[in-house]
Inverse folding.
């Protein structure tokens, strides 16, 4: 089975973690091996030494790319949910890996949602380096998939991503490979 990477980029509160978890569930239900590399979770475990400056974000993201590469090499689909605000970095990740799936959401909605209360803190000046407030977010120019979490439900977003993976041949290929392997064709 060939592994690949699904990369969700978007502002804080745009729905990356929510969609990534649901996407992982569906892929597991379909019989695929899928691992989740969520920004917060991986940061706690892998990058407790790093902050949110451009340099630190990049170092953290490079670690995630490295792990994702190891997983993909071993036939596992890795779902990366990381703000990854800089175009140049995503170009590097694309070069190293394969797929990018974008979660697109307006800043107004993110501020309204504010699931972690971070925008409120940033707007009050309690935290610095907040993407979309003090720090830039550079939208992807040519994403494989765009989901609009303003207008689509969580299920619709996940189904849009799965449909595109199917269209791109990732899911199909894997299903065929699996049934070939079962029949001893390889
Ligand atoms: N269509 C949708 N897709 C994803 N999330 C949605 C959608 N509609 C509403 N939501 C809600 O929006 C919030 C998104 O929060 P979530 O933690 O997933 O964002 P995030 O992009 O991972 O943020 P962060 O970068 O801070 O980790 C959740 O409370 C979720 O329930
Ligand atoms: Mg998240």
């Amino acid at each position: 089975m060939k592994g690949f990477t699904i990369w969700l980029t978007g502002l804080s509160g745009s729905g990356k973690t929510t969609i990534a978890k649901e996407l992982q569930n569906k892929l597991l239900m379909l019989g695929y091996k899928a691992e989740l590399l969520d920004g917060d979770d991986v940061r706690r475990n892998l990058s407790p030494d790093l902050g949110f400056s451009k340099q630190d974000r990049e170092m953290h993201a490079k670690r995630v790319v490295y792990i994702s590469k190891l997983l993909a090499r071993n036939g596992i689909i890795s779902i990366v949910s990381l703000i990854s605000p800089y175009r140049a970095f995503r170009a590097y990740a694309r070069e190293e890996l394969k797929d990018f799936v974008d979660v697109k959401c307006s800043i107004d909605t993110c501020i309204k949602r504010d699931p972690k209360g971070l925008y409120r803190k940033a707007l009050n000046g309690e935290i610095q380096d907040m993407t979309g407030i003090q720090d830039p977010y550079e939208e992807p120019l040519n994403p494989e998939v765009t989901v609009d979490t303003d207008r689509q439900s969580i299920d619709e977003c996940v189904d849009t991503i799965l449909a595109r993976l199917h269209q791109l041949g990732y899911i199909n290929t894997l299903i065929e490979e699996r049934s070939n392997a079962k029949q001893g064709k390889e």
